Amino acid sequence: MQAKPSHIIPTKFPSPIELPPLYRIPTPSRTKIQRAISISSTDNSHLALESAIDDSVAAFWDYQFLFVSQRFETVEPVTLRAVDGAIPPDFPSGTYYLTGPGLFTDDHGSTVHPLDGHGYLRAFIIDEVSADLKFMARYVKTEAQVEEHDPETGTWRFTHRGPFSVLKGGQRLGNTKVMKNVANTSVLKWGGRLLCLWEGGIPYEIESGTLDTIGRFDLVDGCDLATDGVNHNGDLLDIAAGLLKPILYGVFKMPPKRLLSHYKLDSKKNRLLTLSCNAEDMLLPRSNFTFYEYDSNFKLLQRREFNIPDHLMIHDWAFTDTHYILFANRIKLDVSGSMAAVCGLSPMISALSVNPSKSTSPIYLLPRSPDKSFGYRDWRVPVEAPSQMWLLHVGNAFEVMDDNGNLEVQVHACCCSYQWFNFKRMFGYDWQSGRLDPSIMNVRERGNELLPHLVQVSINLNADGSCQRCSVEPLNKWKKPADFPIINPTFSGNKNTYIYAATSSGSRQTLPHFPFDMVVKLNVRDESIKTWSAGARKFIGEPIFVPKPGEEDDGYLLVVEYAVAIQRCYLVILNPKRIGEADALVARFEVPGHLNFPLGFHGFWADTTETKF
Question: Record's PANTHER family (predicted)?
């Protein structure tokens, strides 16, 4: 079965100038603007103004084309053409899986936030023998996808609200289909299973060869090991939780335990670590977190539960040999937003807002072992980081103990400001108009300190467990906006030298911060910084490290390049050792134009020998 041609249908977008109807809009590179220029004038200042207008229009449309729906699937593998270089002889056989939203607009007037877009799984299959690169892409057949898509006609009708959207062409008042599990956030291959995960729902299992959806794979249900570290006293919050549970579980169909989309791989112990939270804690000023550890066959080895007396929203987290680490992203219930959300007048996420009432950032060091905590430290007492920060993603964490029994914990992560982070405006989405505003991701106030940036958090604990010092510094003094920090996965949980991330060159006047257009390599030991740039009017997503035996930076980096000006996607292979040099690019492979896809979120490299360390 051959791939069908796609329908490139942008959502409705605002424009800084008056534009013709969508179907008559030319590509951004061909957009022309009528200019009124006096031939008698010797003042050339208008040229700079015209250039700025040109850049503004092109930048606006470049941003929109990152979020263009791809309606069709590539059922049979398609061989990609190399436009630069070739697959290196020592590149291992395996598959790079990338997930993210694929659809933003239905056929009945509704648009959705990118976080509510149906999961679209992309697979880049590399064969070291034939040196071929093949591509496949399929929608994850979640319950919501099956309900909203008509396979006979190819049409879509959104019926699920999702947490971040309001339907224009669907039911509003009384629509309880809020937990729209679209399986679009992250992907994992472990224990012979390929899973697509979503923030707060049960993962979906995918057949790795065909990308067919097998069904839901519940990692939480049936985990009946003893619960540790939690104490419920039957207080008012327990009573409130008891009242909320039948509503959330029965009416809104929320699972009792909401699995987070970010997992961790412990390279030393060859374990998969996952984290869940209780559904009712979204609305209560307390947070119950449960950590699970599995062996390579998905046998549950350990379960640890902790109750934290604060209202928290956790997206990513960290671990070391002896601790789970939670950065307390503090939230609060928004009463007026809750009423509007229940009435269908605003997204359900309007019920929550960030809580910047503290000038510091609590960090919880939770013991992995039920038998001991470092220095008999009371895990209920958080370490207070000296600055206020909202944690987005973690690159790595590790701990080092000195001869006197003192412990140093380091975390490399991406954080942003509470003043910038807004649940309802992520990616610049306006739920009232269904449009995207790139200026939200490119604010200019206070330099770059509001936006996502890389940090190093250092925590020094005395032998008795007391905190001696906690510091937060820009990683290698790199202050440009950046996100998606990653490392060589064989060093996960261990002391690492290199961090890679997506960052911005700042070369676009209208899009100075996001989307990202560079890969940055940071050496945390000598504090050196090297970058690779995708080039003009090209953006990138999250890089992925493909390890080889040898030194820490022996291997390859994979990153998708979005050449939005010509509406093309490329898979780029980089040599990590040569980042910063002219020959860093190893190869670039073009995805056919009719298979062009929107911005992906998170990916995973799966070696054909299975993922073991």
Answer: BETA-CAROTENE DIOXYGENASE, CAROTENOID CLEAVAGE DIOXYGENASE 7, CHLOROPLASTIC
Residue type for position 284: L
- CA dihedral sign of residues 18, 22, 25, 31: positive
Mean pLDDT for 142-149 is 96
Q: Which residue has the tokens 């995973």?
A: 604
Bridge pairing between strands 287-294 and 213-216: unpaired
Encoded amino acid at 173, one letter: L
The whole-angstrom separation of Cα 74 and Cα 172 is 34
User: Where in the sequence is the domain holding 512, given as residue range(s)?
Assistant: 50-223+256-607
Q: Is the pLDDT of residue 283 over 90?
A: no
- Number of structural domains (the chain) is 1
Amino acid 25: pLDDT: 32
Residue 340 maps to a domain = yes
Residue type, 64: Q
**Which tokens belong to 592?**
């056919």
7 a known binding residue? no
594 is in an annotated binding site: no
CA distances from 308 to 242, 280, 286 (A): 18, 14, 6
Note the pTM of the prediction, 2 decimals. Answer: 0.89
Confirm or deny that 412 is annotated as ligand binding.
no
Domain contains 468: yes
Domain assignment of residue 229, yes or no:
no
Q: How far is CA 529 from CA 119, 295, 580, in A?
A: 34, 36, 8
Residue 36 in domain: no
Residue with the two structure tokens 């804690």: 281
Q: How far apart are CA 56 and CA 395, in angstroms?
A: 33
What is the per-residue DSSP string for 88-146? -TTPPPEEEEEE-B---B-SSS-B--GGGSPBEEEEEEEETTTTEEEEEEEE---HHHH
